[in-house]
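Can anyone check this?
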Amino acid sequence: MRKSKFKQYVLTNIPITNAGSEGKSIARQDEKVVLVDYAVPGDIVDLRVISSRKKVNFGKVEKIITSSPDRVEPFCSHFGICGGCKWQQMSYTAQLRYKNQQVLDAFERIGKFPFLPFLPILGSAKTQGYRNKLEYSFTDRKWLTEVSDKEQMTESEHKGLGFHVPGRFDKVLDIEHCYHQPDPSNQIRLAVRDFAIKAGHTFHNAHSQDGFMRNIIIRNASTGEWMVVVVFKENDQEKIQPLMLHLQQQFPQITSLLYVINGKMNDTIHDLPVHVFAGKDHLVERLGNTQFHIGAKSFFQTNTDQTINLYNVARDFAGLTGSENVYDLYTGVGTIALYVAEKAKQVVGIEYVEQAIVDAKHNANLNQNTNTHFYAGDMKDMLNDELIAKHGKPDVVITDPPRAGMDEKVIQKLMEVAPQKIVYVSCNPATQARDIALMQELYEVTKVQPVDMFPHTHHVENVALLELRVSS
């Protein structure tokens, strides 16, 4: 039997009481929670309930009756459609307050920690132009934000270059200006889009997987270097060369002008060769005294300035004096490992992605670093007795796992090895609290430091220091 369509309805004069998950805010309808997009705690609104699940309803603001003191005017014309900055309507002070609360709630609710020594959240000095990487998608059917007669639109008018609309893999919002990255990022994106339209190049179609223009990646470094990677479907040099030459001539700031041919059914380029049209195949970035080569496929934290603050917290929590044996789990391209290496006797980095370890070893050589060792493989398999026998028991473990947190076998091994300190860096306080709760028999949480890496979003990083209990 076909499920009946949900009948929407409006609730009037509803107070927004708190910030919820995934950037939504919380209201209540009798005993049921309503998660509301783009509301601010303290607002009183009329809201439209648009869908329902067993324990929660979902709604959107129909009308603001009374604005919260924390409500501000969004600065981006794409706000509310793009989905990239769900908290632009909230003052930055309030954003930090709710992110801090998000971490506290995770440790109290999931970790069952009644009291922890929380340090005030570290805000980002830059709240605009703080990202060093953006990726845009081409589309031959851009998302229309206004009522238009589609039949009267030309083929060119349907083309766009921007971000995927939340929940719609096949829809792309054409972006005129993005505040995430400093100039000339916007000018580069618009130049590529306009040149491709004028040249008559076909744009990607998500359903048929056709279209010559697929993606563009723009990266920049604090050293002033810029990288542009244009992704084409076919190796048609008669089309590629003029476009790339146009970029080279218009933007002398670009130090790495690259392209990729991707004829696959997905957008990932990690298994594809990168071609250098002009300049170098990498950017040079610096974090303190350490420099890194960043290629088109390299992972690197996207807020460079705040990354330094995050890593300083991790290094300070580790309390390194130069005599410690440090293990860096989920090391990626070795950024944390290399950043703390000058204050450690030895650092052993482990990472699942083989190419990341290739990059880590390259960056170690770049910095003439001789006290780091890097290994690729599944963490639960690599963190074993053989590795520990080879490099010695760790005094300090720094772990920065993906959002899913650490595998239970990894946690069990850490408990068995029992380093004096574990510095747990996380992009997901919920899984972090869960993992730490599994270790509290041996470890006491002595410091917790939230760090805001992504202003105007609900995401928050957190660093926790675990110290071996005296009785252990």
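Reply from J.R.: I decoded it. The longest strand covers residues 56-66.
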